[in-house]
Amino acid sequence: MNKIKIDAVIAADVKKVWEYYTSPMHIVNWNFATDDWKCPWAKNDMVVGGKYIARMEAKDGSFGFDFEASYNEIIPNKKFTYTMTDNREVNVEFNDLENKTEVIVLFDAESENSIELQRDGWQSILNNFKKYTESN
What we know:
The chain is an alpha+beta fold. It has helices at 14-22, 24-30, 115-134, and strands spanning 3-10, 37-38, 42-44, 51-58, 64-75, 79-84, 89-96, 101-108. Strands 1, 2, 3, 4, 5, 6, 7 and 8 form an 8-stranded antiparallel sheet that branches. Helix 1 packs across helix 2.
């Protein structure tokens, strides 16, 4: 299975970046790739075996889905891994760069969409996260 890597450097310390990335009250503000989408709610039981669920939908109501995964490993402020419902795995690392944090996401590609489309979509969400975190 192909792995896709995306990353961003956030101008914030690792504790803030971890909190904004994992807390449902923040997830709903950045977890979408384009401005015509939204994330109306999210739940995150951040323990090994716990579930992460985020509702993603078009603002016009034309389409939506629940993104769901279960945690495999969690090292607070460092990294976590989860497995999505289609058995693809995602690894998220948080590298402390002194007042900045590098976030690296490595995920298993799916077969329906091109690698480029998947990378661009996930990178857009991560870019949204960066913008939200740096401005709050």
